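Quick log. Single chain, no ligands specified.
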Amino acid sequence: MRVLGIDAGGTKTIGLLADEHGTTLGWGRGPGANLQASGELEVEKVLHDVMEQATGGDHIRPDVICLGIAGVDRPGDADAVRGIMRRIGFKTPVIVVNDALVALTAGAGDAPGLVIIAGTGSIAYGRTGHGVAARAGGWGYLLGDEGAGFWIGRAALTAVVRQFDGRGPATLLTELVLRHMQLGSPTELIHAIYDGGMQRLAVAGIAAVVPDAMEQGDAVAGEIVGRATSELVAAAAAVIQRLEMRGDVFPTILSGGAFHGIPALVSGVTAGLSEVAPRSDVKLLSVEPAVGAVQMALAHVRGTLTLPRYV
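-> predicted structure:
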C-alpha cells in the first residue's frame, strides 16, 4: 500500500510517497502552487511534476492522495483542484484540504490545536476536539497576509523610500535592501519593481534582510517585526476566541519560512500567545507539512479520517 501526501504552499510544493507505516519511499519538490496567485494551468504543471518525481513516473500509483493547498476551503476551489488532479490522470481517491490543516496535522497529529503559517502568505487555523475548525487570514497579498514574507518585504521597501523622501527615519534597511536587490539608489526601485515585473516571491525574499538590520539595532526593522508579530498573534487570537479555546491545553504550531528566517518573530509570537492562550505549548514545526498530508492519507485508508467543519 502506498499513499502520497502533498503540501502546496506559496513558495514551494513538496510531495512525499509513503508506505502503510508512513515511511518515506520517494519525494518531489517544485515551486509554489497557489490557485489564486498562479492559476489552474500553472498549478497543474507543478503538481504533475512533483507527483511524477515522488512516484518515479509510471512505476508506482498511490492508493490515496492527500493534497493540502491554500484556499480550497472556499466554494469552488476544491472542485477546481479535483479537476486538475483528474486531468493529471491519477485515478486515485484524492482528499483536498487547506494547507493549514496539513501543517497542523504534521505538528499535532489529530489532536486539537492551532497552527500559524507565516510563509509568503499567512493564516491562523484551529481545530477543537469536537471536530470544529476556524480560520483567520489567508486572504492573499492584496487583502491581507499580514506578518508574512511578502508583507514584511513590502514594509522594508516602504521604509527605504520613506527615508529617501524624508518622510521616515533613517534605517539600515536602505543599505541592506539595495545590496540584496543589487541596486545603487532607491530611485532605481521604481524600474526594478514596476518595469521589471518584480514577482511576489522576490518581494517576500527581501524579508530576509530585516532580521540582519534588527540584529544591528535598527529601530525601523524592529518596528516591522513587532507589527508582524502583533498581526500574527491577532489572527491566532481571533481563532482561539471563535473556538472558545482560551483556557484549553493545546499545541500551537508555527510553520513557514518567515518563522524559520526571523527568530524574533518566533519569540514575539510565543510571548504574545502566552497572554492569549496561557496554557498553549508553542512549537516551531520541525518537519515538512507534507508529513501531515501523508498522515491524513493513511487515516483515510484506515477509515479513521474525519475532516473538521467550520464554525
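The first helix runs from residue 35 to 38.
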